[in-house]
Specification:
Blueprint lengths: L1 H10 L8 E5 L14 H16 L3 E3 L1 H4 L9 H14 L2 E4 L7 H12 L3 E7 L6 H4 L7 E6 L2 H11 L2
Parallel strand pairs: 1-2, 1-3, 3-4, 4-5
């Protein structure tokens, strides 16, 4: 009976066994004149989401959840959704933003307060806030420095091997 149950879970793609990832990135500053995320940034996030889903993670991302800006949630709705998604995740991955994204930085605070494993994606040569640079002193942070999207994807892929 146990073997049949495990087979059933495996057939479902192991959804009951999957770990959760919250992928954070600037949002409002990425919106174009039509109030949707521009295609270049959408492609970056979609590429990373696909990579993580291919590794059988359940990925929570506000951009995708809010249809890249076309279906924006109210402030109360998105705050509640992000807070509880971060509380439930095993990994918190973030592009902190430059200029700093206030929303992403709040999410960084929640992730550190919840003792989540954090992976910060930092572009080489970009100056980030001191509290982002120093977060590893008090929290479980892995800093992944990347040159471009291909390098970023490769670094994430290596991290989860």
């Amino acid at each position: 009976m146990l073997l049949q149950m495990l087979f059933f879970i495996w057939k479902l793609g192991g959804i009951f066994l999957n770990e959760r990832v919250f992928l954070a990135a600037p949002f409002k500053q990425l919106l174009n004149q039509k109030n949707v995320v521009d295609s270049e940034n959408t492609q970056v996030l979609q590429t990373i989401i696909q990579l993580l889903e291919n590794k059988h993670f359940i990925v929570d991302n506000a951009h995708k959840r809010e249809n890249w800006g076309a279906e924006m949630m109210t402030p109360s709705q998105c705050t509640t959704a992000d807070y509880f998604a971060i509380k439930q995740c095993q990994y918190f991955i973030a592009f902190p933003g430059n200029p700093a994204s206030p929303g992403t930085h709040i999410e960084l605070g929640w992730a550190s307060a919840f003792n989540k494993k954090m992976i910060l994606l930092l572009k080489v040569g970009v100056d980030y806030a001191y509290l982002v640079q120093g977060l590893g002193a008090i929290a479980d942070v892995e800093y992944l420095y990347y040159q471009d999207l291909a390098d970023c994807v490769q670094k994430i892929n290596q991290f989860f091997k």
